[in-house]
Design goal:
Layout lengths: L10 H15 L7 H14 L15 H4 L15 H7 L7 E6 L2 E2 L12 E4 H6 L4 H7 L9 H9 L4 E5 L9 E7 L6 E11 L4 E10 L5 E11 L4 E8 L5 E11 L4 E8 L4 E10 L5 E10 L4 E10 L5 E10 L4 E10 L7 E10 L5 E10 L5 E9 L3 H8 L5 H14 L8 H15 L6
Length: 444
């Protein structure tokens, strides 16, 4: 039975302030205390965003902020290997790292990579030799104007730190699992990830969150990615959690010249999911890719907010988001492209296409361009509609049932948003999830 409490709207904000002193006392890395207190003060000044805020005009957070949460998760768990195996992608040659109730579980992890610095975030904060790295990178590109990034800075403890040295190519993808289990109260996690990919290096990360309980879990996740010249960083988010899960995910990527960074977001589960994605171009000849597939129903909400800052010439960005909505679900897409006056020869593409399967489903879409250069090639667009009746008739005329014909068309509609996935087991897993959500039998 899901636990709910009838309490004032501002209850969560009050809980955050009340718990912060105890949280700081529980930490050993005191060098961030002043930064955490300053971040908490910024959060208090900002408060949680409401629908009066332009960035949240289509997304209400009331159901999140009206609940009581435990800020100190119980560490005990009984996750089995079989349960974890079900979360894997069927891969045979991946590395993976597993966090259960916020704590890194080495016995449930498999890390074989060498010549890199790969630590839990909490351990890295406690390690003196990483102090300079954190002072150089931590919270340097995350927004200071966001309530959630400030809240994360004030409370972050869980997550991982990965530094890939110059010219090191990590051949195996790394799957990071965040699991919550055996919690008796609604639980609040502030996860933090820091990825540094040095010149000529390459890495691929897969991230997924899983709530095994019927109580509500709120995860406020912040990721900072630094991609150096001629480096490649791919980050894949598989969001397929249960109906008592809330996820606020903020990812910031800063790229140097000749680099390539990709963030793919596949949203199938969770009660409310908000994805904030911010790319910063800090050199020329940069390539940025953002792709997303959303398939939700019932009363789920998935909100994608993206921004690309073209600050240098001869760079490209590509955004392709597909959404399929049924029941009383609600989708939001707000994509922004900023082109600085010196960013000549910019090539920016942005597209958001959506299908509404019934009258109860809604989508609010708002692609935006802000261009101050004159020699650019920028395009954006969005579509909202239903299935093509002619294509549906064509399939049915060949003996395919109406349900199967609809599912096949929807599968084809969403499929092109995952064409740049280099990891075959991940591509197959997403294809299977698509097929399951659409209830169609697809052979792989």
């Amino acid at each position: 039975m899901v636990q709910t409490t009838d309490i004032p709207v501002m209850a969560l904000k009050e809980q955050i302030k009340e718990n912060h002193g105890e949280f700081l006392e529980s930490l050993r890395h005191r060098f961030l205390d002043d930064d955490r207190k300053a971040a908490l003060q910024r959060f208090e000044n900002l408060g949680f965003p409401t629908k009066k805020d332009e960035e949240y005009k289509y997304t209400s957070l009331k159901e999140i902020t009206e609940k009581q949460y435990n800020f100190f998760p119980k560490e005990g768990h009984n996750i089995t290997k079989e349960q974890l195996d079900e979360l894997h992608l069927g891969e045979e040659n991946f590395d993976w790292i597993t966090f259960v109730n916020g704590k890194l579980r080495k016995e449930l992890s498999n890390v074989s990579i060498e010549n890199v610095e790969f630590l839990s975030f909490n351990y890295a904060l406690n390690d003196e030799k990483h102090r300079d790295i954190f002072e150089q990178y931590f919270n340097t590109i995350a927004s200071k104007d966001s309530a959630f990034t400030n809240l994360n800075q004030a409370y972050c403890k869980y997550g991982f730190f990965l530094k890939v040295p110059k010219n090191v190519v990590i051949e195996k993808p790394i799957h990071v699992f965040y699991i919550s289990q055996n919690q008796e109260e609604n639980t609040f996690y502030n996860t933090r990830n820091l990825l540094i990919v040095e010149e000529g290096a390459k890495v691929e990360i897969i991230e997924s969150h899983h709530n095994f309980d019927s109580v509500y879990v709120l995860t406020n996740s912040v990721t900072e990615i630094f991609t150096y010249p001629n480096a490649k960083a791919d980050w894949h988010k598989v969001q397929n959690d249960n109906d008592t899960s809330y996820l606020i995910d903020s990812t910031f990527a800063r790229q140097e010249k000749d680099s390539l960074t990709t963030v793919n977001t596949f949203s199938f589960g969770g009660k409310l999911v908000r994805n904030n994605l911010d790319f910063i171009h800090n050199g020329s000849n940069i390539n940025s890719f953002m792709n997303g597939i959303t398939i939700i129903g019932k009363d789920q909400l998935v909100d994608h907010h993206t921004a690309v800052h073209h600050n240098q010439p001869n760079c490209e960005s590509y955004q392709n988001y597909k959404g399929i909505f049924s029941g009383n679900s609600h989708g939001v897409f707000n994509g922004k492209v900023f082109v600085d006056k010196i960013a000549q020869k910019t090539n920016a593409y942005q597209q958001n296409n959506n299908v509404l399967l019934n009258e109860g489903a809604t989508i609010d879409t708002k692609p935006q361009l802000e261009i101050f250069a004159d020699d650019v090639k920028c395009s954006h667009g969005c579509t909202v509609g239903q299935l093509n009746e002619d294509a549906l008739f064509y399939l049915r005329a060949r003996g395919i049932s109406k349900k199967e014909a609809q599912a096949l068309l929807l599968y084809a509609f969403a499929n092109d948003a995952m064409q740049n996935i280099d990891i075959e087991p991940l591509k197959e897993k997403i294809s299977k999830l698509l097929a399951e959500k659409l209830e169609v039998d697809i052979e792989f």
